[in-house]
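Q: I have 150 residues here and want to know how they pack in 3D. Can you give me a structure?
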Amino acid sequence: MILIEKAEKEDLEEILKLQYLAYQSEARLFDNMDIPPLKQTIEEIYEEFQKGVILKVVDDGGVIIGSVRAYRDGRTVYIGKLIVHPSKQGQGIGTQLLFEMEKQYPHKRYELFTSTKSERNIALYQKLGYKIFDEEQVTEELRFVYMEKG
């Protein structure tokens, strides 16, 4: 049994540690441990907390095992940092987090992005109704795909 709820300010340090753990696999896709999610500071996550909504998933033992962030700008909700503990991936937690975040901002357009190398993420988002609408070459080896729903 898991519980999804809004994160509190005191949860942010634990969420940031989980982010560092969850993004290791993404960094390995590029053979580069210098990606932004692995360099984010506690001050930056506090800013995101002030700007929008951060959800957390708590297991039976009270441990945070997943999280997602979003903020609204006009009619669009920008969703980011969907993370699930590596040992808990593939169990539907990410799907539940996305659905719950969409409930926080009903009847909006949702946008997110991921790397073109993150095939599991792209497949998940497409399964949940997101469609690719743009791509951006960030560096020689990094290309983002932008996806939308609604």
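Q: Anything worth noting?
A: The longest strand covers residues 64-73. The mean pLDDT is 95.
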